[in-house]
Structure formats: structure tokens, C-alpha cells
Amino acid sequence: MGLRTARAQSCGGDKNLLGHLTENQIEDYGRRSLSATELLSVADHLGVCESCRRQVERALSGDAAFLALRFEVFDPPAGIASSARVWTHPTVEQIAEYVDGMPTGEELQVVQDHLTICEQCALAVTDLRAFKSQVAPRLNREYHPAPVRATFQSWRHRLLAFLPSPLLRSPLAFSSALAVLLLMVIGWLIWQAQQKKEREVVIATPPTSFTPPSTPSVMPTPSPIPAPEAAPVIAELNDGEGRVVLDRAGKLSGVDNLPPAYQRMVRESLTNQRLTQSSLLVGLNRPTSSLMGGDEQGNKFSVTEPVGKVMLSDRPTFRWSQLEGATGYIIEVYDKKFNLVTGSSPLTDKSWTAPQPLKRGEIYSWQVKAIKDGQEFRSPRPPATQAKFRILDQRKANELTQAQGAYGSSHLTLGLLYAEAGLLDQAEKEFQALQKANPDSELVRRLLSQLQKLGR
What DSSP character marks residue 297? Predict the structure, then answer.
């Protein structure tokens, strides 16, 4: 039976008798084409009008029969025996009571057993729980008018009042109806907001007498706190791309890129304005005279370097002065126990580089033999002291290599590091570059002079 035919038989055409639903309303309700506000009004009427609810049921029996389950009782799977009540779908009221936690004992067990085998009813329970947690509390507190709250005392009674009887017979149809109910709630919220806005009344506030603001009392202006006087500067140098400044209070600026240990080294050197001899130079005695050997004819020659020095390279170059009339020279290098470590074949040049690296951190001594007229003349020879040198240890060599790459523009920093390691030749080059950048600095002249004395 069509929607229009069923309504015509009940209410006589399109007339709205005694406030009943019109044919168009029933037809739009069946098609789910009502607006949210209209759907809420129709649902309220169906909740209290038995006549219209029967007409809707008859109208839906032909057009929406798919919403009801075909059978109330279904057969259990093969091989499984259970109570007949387990295989009967619970009503929507029973499902709602189950969600509220009301069933107990055997009734609770029957519903639980049914939910384990019926996917449709389990889905209805899940949807109803979600609806209860999200929507139902709002309906209970504020969104239903007072008559509805008085008639229906629980959220599920209100829900059941909105749904036609065919929908109450099917848990599957009940899940589908939740979506419709959500639309109804949204429409109700919009309608309530509009009504509240219309009821708002702007209350004019009576004007009050104007009281001019009192003139604030003039607060005495605090006298400014004088800034502390800057400590006098005791050292100020142009260094590479920056400027190093040290005041009498010990504040050092211009070296923020240096590690703390290097900053302390710079501060102490500028404060004391002097250099101390490196501990690595101890034991490397220099000769007392410029002539460290000679022959009976007065032809004299001497070793020049390395003598009394620390060497950065582990393959040092040896140099000596010429002996008049000599046809060749032989170099011999000894360890601290005077064991021969390395030597050269007869040479005609006045320099020679060790062919293999010497052990780092060790002290060595060396001598040169000059061949003249078939005789050997040694330098140095007693009473002259031995020509000694030290190969810088690996840790210090690595540190200096890293400093050269990181702080190569700071002549002050590198000069102090080289002097500390006993590398006097390298330190002198850095201080000479620092003096060139600070030609009028008495401090740089003093440091360079001290360094040159350490090398004598």
C-alpha cells in the first residue's frame, strides 16, 4: 500500500484532522526528506498519538519492510545446541536495558549469549553505547522541553518515543535509525539557539553621573642610578680579524671562540705580560759558544740545528757549517742511551733529513763528521756540550694541528701555544705577525723579546 493511499483512508485526504499528521508529512517521513526541525515535531506527535502511529506503521509496511527482520527466531548453526531464548532477537527495549546494565542473572546471561552469535544485535549494542555517551546526556540535561522531560524519565524512553514501531522490532533497523536521530538532535540544537537569540533583550543601562578622574599625584622621579665606571684597560691588541681587550678587573673580550683553557692562557699572559720557559725545553742544553768543534790547523765548523730545540716534525732536517777543505760529511743520530738510531752515507751538502720517523716524545743527540785529507773531524766534540733535541709527543702535536685549523687567524693564541710546547721558531713567527698588526704595542715587543731570549 502506498503512503498517500494509506493516509487518505485514515484521515480523509490532505486535511489535518484534530492536529493529526498530514499526508505530505507521513510521505516525507517515510522518505526521510523532512528537515531536522520537522522531523523532531513529527516524532513528538508519534510519541503521543496512537492513531497517526498506526497509519505510519501501515504506510511503512509496504515501502520500508526491509527495515524489519524477517524472523524473530532463527535456527542455531549446525552442531550447536542452546536455549531457544538465545536464538531469539532481543527487543530494542531489552538492548537498551542491557546498555544501562539493568539485566541480572539468567536474563543477563541470555542477552550476553545471544550477542556472541548475532552480529546484528552486537552492532546495535555498540551503536547505542556510542549514542548514550555522546548524545543522550545532552538530551537529559537541556535540549528537551519540560513536557517531554516529564513524560519520559530516561534517555532510552525518549529514544524509543521517536522511533516507529516497525523500527523497534529490529536491532539492525535501530542502528540505522541512530543516524536519523543525530540529524534530529542537530536540528533541535539549531532551533534552540535561534529561540534563545530571539529571547535576548537588550537592557539599557541608565546613565550615571560623570565623575572626572582625579588628577594623579605627581610622583617624584627617582634619580637615575649611575652606571658603574668601566675598569681601566690594561691590554688591547689587534689580533687577526678581531680585537682582544683585557681590563684591570680581569674581563677578557674578543676571545669568545676559544675554549676555556685557551682563554685562561691568554688572560694570564696579558695580565703578567711575560712568557715562561716550556718544560719540554728542560735538558736540552745549548752550547756555550758558537764554535763547537775544530781541528789542529784552526779550521773549525759547527752544527747549527736542531740544537736545544723541540721539533714538531718526527723527521727533522739537520744542518751544519762548512769545514774548509772537507770532501764529505757523515751524520749520526743517537738516543738518550747513546745508541745509534740512524745515520747518513757520505754527503757533500750541508743539510740532511732523517729517512725514517723518529720516536715521538724522545730526546736525541747528533753529530757530524767532516772528512778532510783522509781524517775525521767531529762536531760537537768535548769540551763542547752535546747537540740535543726533542721530538714533540703525539698528543701535543695533534692539539697544535687542530688549533692551526680552528684558530689560524689568531697570532696571539698560536704564538702562546707554540711557546708553551717549546716550538720557539714557530712561536717567534706568530709574535712577529702580531707585532706587525700592533706596531706601537709595548706589550707585544716585550713578549717577543722574552721569546727570543728563551731560544738563545
Answer: T
Q: How far apart are CA 216 and CA 55, in angstroms?
A: 80
CATH of domain 286-389: 2.60.40.10
Give the residue, 32 or 20, on which the prediction is more confident.
20
- Fold equal for 232-273+393-456 and 286-389: no
Residue 255 in grid coordinates: 676571545
Q: Where does 314-405 show beta strands of DSSP type E?
A: 317-320, 328-334, 340-343, 351-353, 363-372, 375-379, 387-391
Coil, helix or strand at residue 342: strand
| Whole-number Å distance between alpha carbons of 164 and 151 | 17
Mean pLDDT, range 6-18, rounded to an integer: 42
Higher pLDDT, 352 or 118: 352
The residues near 232 (Cβ < 8 Å, ≥ 6 apart) are 247, 248
CA-CA distances (angstroms) from residue 255 to 88, 244, 417, 431? 89, 7, 15, 17
Compute φ and ψ for 168, nearest 5 degrees. Answer: -75, -15
The residue among 399 and 89 whose pLDDT is bigger is 399
- What does the domain layout of the chain look like in residue ranges? 3-193, 232-273+393-456, 286-389
pLDDT of residue 94: 79
Helices then strands, each counted (H, E), the chain: 17, 12
**Is this structure's pTM higher than 0.70?**
no
Residue of 254, 238, 256, 275 whose CA lies nearest to 434: 238
**pLDDT(88) > 80:** no
Domain 232-273+393-456: which topology? 1.25.40
Residue 396: pLDDT band by 50, 70, 90 thresholds?
very high
46-54, Cβ contacts within 8 angstroms, sequence gap of 24 or more: 46/21, 46/161, 46/162, 46/164, 47/151, 47/161, 47/162, 48/151, 49/20, 49/21, 51/10, 51/20, 52/20, 52/21, 52/26, 53/164, 53/165, 54/10
